[in-house]
Prior knowledge:
- This protein is an alpha/beta fold and 234 residues long.
- Helices cover 30% and strands 26% of the residues.
- The protein is built from 6 helices and 9 strands.
- It has helices at 52-59, 82-92, 108-118, 123-136, 152-164, 182-195; strands at residues 8-19, 26-37, 41-45, 67-72, 93-96, 170-174, 202-206, 218-223, 226-232.
- Strands 5-6-7-3-8-9 form a 6-stranded mixed beta sheet, with helices on both faces.
- The radius of gyration is 17 Å and the shape is globular.
Amino acid sequence: MKTNTSANAVRCAGVQKHFGEGDARIHVLRGVDFEAKQGELTFLVGPSGCGKTTLISVITGLLDSTGGSVELFGANTRQLPPEEQIRFRRRNLGFVFQQYNLLPALTAAENAAVPLLAAGMKRREAVERAKALLVKLGLENRMDTLPSKLSGGQQQRVAMARALVHEPRLIVCDEPTAALDHATGESVMELLADSAVHPERAVIVVTHDNRVFHFADAVAHMDDGRITHSEQRN
């Protein structure tokens, strides 16, 4: 799981985010400094409500920051025109949402193939590639099943496949093992750890699941909208 690279995949400097104005303003991120290195699996941990999900939403461009800067692979994507920002995210980012966000009318394989279809790959090829990944995640018997017929853990694995299928340079996961039993959670984390082996790829995992902490190369601890300390584990 280790590489010798020290290049940053993500660099946040003084990132701030607030919601509302005046007396109703809520400060969620209070000057966050955070780095995730290429070739590593970085965990972002801390109590509920400390700003972890907001931070990864800012990193991936789902939310705009109020202040500070975010660089992905050395590029400040906020300086790109909107269409180029979209193309950059489509090529380089994979996101596993806590609520899965699967499309209800598509099968498991079709959901997992969405990033490839969005990139213009032919449907048959995209679905076949998605199916190969679903087999690795233990869903070989559920590929043609709609999300409404899948368990929470199965939906989570489909969401994982969708994030990985186009081989993005940055994979961001929000509680990827929360709905999984221990054995399945271990297999998912092993797949993520394998994804981080590539010296030009990085994985960020937001988690409360201390059963999988041993997979982390680095851990950033967050509280009250700030990174309080970071540690290199491997």
